[in-house]
Design a protein that fits this description.
Length: 384
């Protein structure tokens, strides 16, 4: 557990915020950090392949306080939250989470957060890596709706893996372990307010623990690790291997503001027939009618195992001409394959198609395959 490193060795200055769990993660073995939503996130606990096996065989605890919450409150909160998203939220219940898209006036994706409905007039958007708070405040200025927009003192941890339920029970009792998939509950932990949800960025059985008092971050981390370690819990970080296996997209890597939901095979999250208006409604109607010129696909890449992940987008070639680019690539030790997500011209997106990936002048053959690459029905996360 002891780590001789001091956090100042990772610091870029005050413009990047520490999380309430940064020091604890460092004590428990974090060796490197990245920046996400203007905050530090642990990205290195040693061997990423071992981190993957810890996740899929046991359980890991991850500091994901970088998943900031955009809080929407007020008499018009439900109407305004719907105005931001292209997914129909009319049937969302208090205590329910939903994966949603925040889209702009051209249909571009600003973010793909998890929505939590705390009350009929109270919502959180648990965001990926983009400045959603600024967008939402800008929309609110001209929306003519009675809402309050803020970033509350909320910092989530992710407890993920097949043993996560046992760890959660040891830490907080039986009640949270009875949560259904994409449901949450409020929880009082010895006077410290939490929200516990059955969600997470792993496609494994897992939970997120939203700390609502940042001053208790060290205490919460230590409590979970101390009760969880005898049950197999390890400190860790979100696994690129597992999220690519699951076909889970990463903002700025696999989707950007330049992409629309239909390119990303997320048309199921667009409800054009609802009576309610939303920012991107007209644009997405046009895009759906016209069709899209490119689509996100899965690839299996031939050759030796890839080392690490790609740090730029590799060209995808057909007969020497570029038809797209690899956005995320990794070697899956479980599948024994190199797998990737790629954005390619629609005429080259059919399963079974072949192409070539140019990896620093190492051209490798690849085949278009369905995504997700593993557990396509996501039964591990939803039915375990």
């Amino acid at each position: 557990m002891t780590n001789d490193l001091d956090f100042s060795q990772f610091s870029f200055g005050t413009q990047v915020r520490k999380s309430p769990f940064s020091d604890a993660a460092l004590r428990w073995g974090a060796k490197g950090f990245s920046v996400y939503n203007h905050m530090y996130i642990p990205r290195d606990f040693g061997d990423p392949v071992q981190n993957f096996w810890n996740l899929v065989n046991e359980a890991i605890l991850c500091d994901v306080a970088v998943e900031r919450q955009v809080e929407i409150k007020g008499p018009d909160a439900a109407k305004f939250t719907q105005f931001l998203s292209c997914r129909d939220l009319s049937k969302c219940e208090v205590g329910q989470c939903k994966y949603v898209l925040i889209t702009d006036q051209a249909g571009g994706i600003i973010n793909d957060p998890i929505l939590l409905k705390l009350a009929d007039d109270h919502f959180w958007l648990s965001i990926a890596d983009s400045d959603v708070l600024l967008w939402v405040r800008g929309v609110a200025v001209n929306a003519g709706m009675d809402v309050e927009i803020s970033e509350p003192d909320v910092s989530p941890l992710q407890l993920q893996g097949p043993k996560s339920r046992d760890v959660l029970r040891a830490a907080f009792g039986d009640a949270p372990t009875e949560l259904k998939y994409y449901r949450f509950m409020e929880y009082n932990w010895d006077g410290v307010p939490l929200i516990i949800s059955r969600t997470g960025w792993s496609s494994e059985l897992g939970y997120e623990i939203f700390l609502r008092d940042g001053s208790a971050g060290d205490e919460l981390w230590e409590h979970i690790m101390q009760v969880g370690t005898p049950l197999g819990l390890k400190p860790g970080h979100t696994s690129s291997i597992r999220r690519i296996e699951a076909g889970m997209m990463s903002y700025h890597a696999d989707m950007t503001l330049a992409n629309n939901p239909y390119e990303l095979n997320l048309g199921r999250l667009v409800d054009l027939g609802i009576d309610a208006d939303f920012v991107s409604k007209a644009a997405l109607k046009d895009i759906k009618a016209e069709g899209v010129a490119q689509r996100l696909i899965g690839l299996e890449i031939d050759g030796e195992p890839l080392v690490g992940s790609n740090d730029f987008c590799w060209p995808v070639l057909v007969e020497g001409a570029q038809v797209g680019q690899v956005t995320s690539a990794i070697h899956s030790p479980r599948l024994g394959k190199n797998i990737a997500l790629a954005m390619v011209q629609s005429e080259h997106a059919s399963v079974g198609g072949v192409a070539c990936v140019d990896i620093l002048d190492d051209q490798r053959m690849c085949t278009v395959v369905p995504i997700p690459f593993y557990d396509p029905k996501k039964s591990l996360a939803s039915t375990s």
